[in-house]
């Protein structure tokens, strides 16, 4: 599978990505589609994707944004609100439009204003999801102003996730983009119905990255990066071979001027070099042989979907990531901007 300079993997999937809409979608969609066979597409558009019709139309726009012949399957999600109708969710799931539902606590992050104000408001939907075997994807942060931003994930485990798992013991849940050793321990201790995604960036940056010689908006995302020991715990979990931890980039593009602003948006745009970034981390951990399972096996197994056919290749070859990508009208700063990575993704047909 791997010699020293070539890494061949079963085609991987991205179990958490923001593709956006409009011109941003046109730019971002193929950066994910060229590396991943499938992706769980976040529904936090404006307005959010809360209906089967909206998800169907969005999926069409994603296909329209891709070059002809690209083999990519967007897996759509329903954005849970206090009012969402369990019948709508079930119809979308049974017709193959919705793969899962996404819980954003109201106010937790970008475009979460219509999110759930109290998890008890969606207990009817959770009951239905549990009955039909539909996954719940969770942004795991509480938003009360009295909770320090660095504690929001840990407090969520205790106040929200614990009770939900106790009340719905057969519900399958993915705690997305985990950032703390508390979450790692929580996942390890929980039953087989709970798993987590880990982003490329949370494996590489801790909170110091936001303040290195000044304020660094491109290192700001939510959940915010934590102390070094948390990052070390995430790295250990990612390379552990435990099938409860798998790949989800949370690549979240924002126009550069909306990041470099007095109130900069949260999100790190890792799609241009996502696999390269994970490969770099696994390589540093001496665990390149574990990358395939993390990227291509554990996710589909948890979701109950088939593994992909086909392979992708990365070559050990230095590449310097551009400072800026996009166009004059839509410029973005990618993750690893200006850094030199030691792996390069090789396009299958290139
Ligand atoms: O950093 C983030 N950006 N975290 C999220 O939860 C949302 C995302 C976005 O949509 O920009
Ligand atoms: Zn996200």
Describe the structure concisely:
The protein is of the alpha/beta class. It has helices at 22-33, 52-65, 86-94, 123-132, 152-167, 181-189, 228-239, 256-259, 274-284, 288-303, and strands at residues 6-10, 13-17, 38-41, 73-79, 98-103, 135-138, 173-175, 194-198, 245-247, 311-320, 325-326, 331-332, 340-346.
List keywords for this structure.
binds zinc ion; three-stranded antiparallel β-sheet; 18% strand; binds (4S)-2,6-dioxohexahydropyrimidine-4-carboxylic acid; 350 residues; eight-stranded parallel β-sheet; TIM Barrel; alpha/beta; 13 strands; globular
Topology diagram in text:
Layout: E1 6-10, E2 13-17, H1 22-33, E3 38-41, H2 52-65, E4 73-79, H3 86-94, E5 98-103, H4 123-132, E6 135-138, H5 152-167, E7 173-175, H6 181-189, E8 194-198, H7 228-239, E9 245-247, H8 256-259, H9 274-284, H10 288-303, E10 311-320, E11 325-326, E12 331-332, E13 340-346
Parallel strand pairs: 2-3, 3-4, 4-5, 5-6, 6-7, 7-8, 8-9
Antiparallel strand pairs: 1-10, 10-13, 11-12
The structure holds (4S)-2,6-dioxohexahydropyrimidine-4-carboxylic acid and zinc ion.
(4S)-2,6-dioxohexahydropyrimidine-4-carboxylic acid binds next to loops.
Global structural class: alpha/beta
Ions and ligands: (4S)-2,6-dioxohexahydropyrimidine-4-carboxylic acid, zinc ion
Average pLDDT score: 97
Give the % helix: 25-40%
What does it look like?
The protein is an alpha/beta fold. The chain has a single domain, classed as Metal-dependent hydrolases (TIM Barrel). The protein is 32% helix and 18% strand. The chain is built from ten helices and 13 strands. The chain has helices at 22-33, 52-65, 86-94, 123-132, 152-167, 181-189, 228-239, 256-259, 274-284, 288-303; strands at residues 6-10, 13-17, 38-41, 73-79, 98-103, 135-138, 173-175, 194-198, 245-247, 311-320, 325-326, 331-332, 340-346. The strands form three sheets. The chain has an eight-stranded parallel sheet, sandwiched between helices. The protein has a three-stranded antiparallel sheet with strand order 1-10-13, covered by helices on one side. It has a two-stranded antiparallel sheet with strand order 11-12. Strand 7 (173-175), helix 6 and strand 8 form a beta-alpha-beta unit. Helix 9 (274-284) crosses helix 10 (288-303). The chain starts with 5 loop residues before the first strand and ends with a strand. The relative contact order is 0.15. (4S)-2,6-dioxohexahydropyrimidine-4-carboxylic acid binds at residues 18, 44, 109-110, 139, 221-222, 252, 265-267. Residues 16, 18, 42, 250, 252 line the site of zinc ion.
